[in-house]
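Render N-acetyltransferase domain-containing protein in 3D.
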Amino acid sequence: MIYQIKDIDLALINRLRDNNYSRRIKSHFLAYGTKYDFLRFFFMEYKGERLGMFSEFNSALMISTFDGKELPEEMLEELSGFVRILKPFSVELERQYGEKLAVLLDDEYRSEKRTEFTYVPTGKLPPLEVDELPKLDDVYKILAQCFPRLEDSYEMWLTDTSHRIRRGLSQSFLMGDYTTATIQYIIDKIALVGQVGTIPEERGKMHARTLLYWIGERLWQQDIAVKLFARPHRVSYYEEIGFKAMGIDTVLERRDEKPSH
């Protein structure tokens, strides 16, 4: 059984397994609570037992299980039916279930592989001029040239990013007027880097590589571990920066949507 819940608290969310998807769910809850229509939370229950939960935020699902719980085939089948009805543009869930759900939804969703990386610090922060409190309009000007989905989503992106930054859940970095990176969440001393971009005329000059290394060292100084997800063919690129591959997850994206950058 899958059903929406509004009466949840942080203690309940903290029962979820320690993984990226649980942290994403937690970041949504800490940012917005349960009072907005664009964010909903659901329980997954099987034979009277709560197995996990997921969030729906701006048409993206983040799914995770509670510690010690597993999703049986029947629950995955029900989840696939729920996805067909809801039609989110993306679905992300724990590594062991991604491929199974992809098979059940193959006619409507394409599956994309993402490698999880963790930064291994060297303890050497390079002297680099990075704006740690940039104007978000300057950040967006770069990202809009790098991520097709952001081209027509300025107000939504600005509102969400500024909202999370004010609550200490996110941060943007700007190097010059050509390269940027945004932390998607800072939860439990773990930061997830996303939306790394360089304007077209400055690509190929190692700007993004330099900024990512600097971010890894800078946040390590603050006792924050840095993670990111990227396509598997980029493993050598991120390893050269100092990231270690930790495993491969499956992300589902609706076939009628533009592929993510």
